[in-house]
Amino acid sequence: MTILPRLPLLALALALAPAAVHAQTPASAAQATAKQMVAGIGIANRDEIVASSKAFKNANSERQIVYKNQIAMAEARRKQINGQIEPLVKKFREDQQLGSATEGELQAQAQTIQNLQQSGVQEINTMLATIVLSEAYVNEQISDVLSRAIIAAMDKRGITLVVPPQNFLAFSNGYVMNAEVLAELDALLPSASVIPPDGWRPRAEREAAAAEARQLAKPAPTRR
Predict the structure, then answer these.
(1) What is the gyration radius of the CA atoms in the chain, in angstroms?
(2) At what angle do helices 54-66 and 178-188 cross, to 10 degrees?
(3) Which of 20, 111, 173, 201 is found 20 to 30 A from 49 (Cα to Cα)?
């Protein structure tokens, strides 16, 4: 999930305007542009901000070192599984094209390939479970701080409402406040831990477990 700098629309307008238009000063032109915008509204892309943050990037780099062995083992196993599947797929295609196998035999071959693929995916996912948990832990650390970063950026720009870009068909770059939120986020959380504490689970799982515990703790309805 990078933020590329864009030349402001105002700068483009001034660069292309005829000399007679320059009677309006840049300051007054900026004021005219500001009047065309709805005050108090900002647009922020959460995914872009998180992916561009120092904490996210640093964690990705550190994870490659901390979990180097697990990543290497999973990659080696992936190659082994592919080595098993590829000749089966080749034979299936050849038998299918040449008509050298019955429909039942082709179905049996396809089922064997599918079973190997499914079991392989499950095995690789199990091997990478600690890494997936690490990613969730980093994302949660960033999420816990992101709202504070957004509020700080809102206060500095006098913004009262921030919405995601998906809510709009089109908008001016003047509304986008990704850079401001990113600066606040990097200041609040320049780095994040990639190793979760023992027994840590993602927030969704913790909340689900807590809801289940509350449900079990409810007293049984009394019978009359």
Answers:
(1) 28
(2) 50
(3) 201
